[in-house]
Amino acid sequence: xxxxxxxxxxxxxxxxxxxxxxxxxxxxxxVDTEAVLENPIAELLLLINDSRKAGSVSYNVQALLNTINQxxxxxxxxxxxxxxxxxxxxxSLKNTNTSNINQVxxxxxxxxxxxxxxxxxxxxxxxxxxxxxxxxxGKNVERILSLISVFRSTFNFKKNHDEEIVLMEAxxxxxxxxAQYRNIYKSHWSLKAVINMVFLEKNLPYTLSYLLDxxxxxxxxxxxxxxxxxxxxxxxxxxxxxxxxxxxDAERLIQVQEETQFRPELDQTLSQVFELISNVSNNLxxxxxxxxxxxxxxxxxxxxxxxxxx
Length: 310
Description:
Blueprint: H1 2-14, E1 24-26, E2 29-31, H2 34-38, H3 41-49, H4 57-70, H5 77-94, H6 101-125, H7 130-155, H8 161-174, H9 178-185, H10 191-200, H11 208-221, H12 233-246, H13 250-253, H14 264-289
Antiparallel strand pairs: 1-2
Helix pairs in contact: 1-7, 1-8, 4-5, 5-6, 7-11, 7-14, 11-12, 12-14
């Protein structure tokens, strides 16, 4: 049961429906995924190396490389070497023998390391200008949305205690929080404790509070319109989301409805925050990248920060 929950969570995270989530109507035909859940390897392999499937690893890495190559003049020699390694990893992943799971895992491990190397390199070398602040803004938006998506789809319904322990461990491991949790709580597993850590801990880089505070900081660095001393629409959304998270009561969030075992407070809270942070992404896209309306240039210097352009 725990594995099924994680598989369904993966579909929600990657937006690759119907995937593992069940039956949906598609062109007036019902797609039954019970067989997929009984033998999930085939669907998992599609999520890894099918470059035509939006949301798959190969599709997303190819989209990243396409974007990287559009601004190739920004990369130094070391960064270019890492990009070449990522390209090699993508080719290797696409050509991996899918009947050999160990080979697939090895290809994913290499890609994972090289992607982290790429991010670490550009983080250390890019100038701290508006382009960097926008990059970090996007990164934090993605981390927040992915964390909420996984947490919500995993814990919105109560499972038995042993299953929830497996799921809590998986969520913490995936977000680099497992070692810190064990250091604080030892072998004691509690969803309330997990919520307090994942939502409220301010000193761990993958918690909601930390990510929201960091997102707020980078948004404050981006150029604004004619009222630089006021919060932008995006900043207001983040402030509201941060306030919701920091005022949560973990005890209330874990309460379940007796008949359905549904956690309405947890689901509603995460849904509200997800919508607010999604609005941040939409607002930034409209402000800086929609050429059909008056927008603000992300390339503005401090001297021209109050000017707008078409």
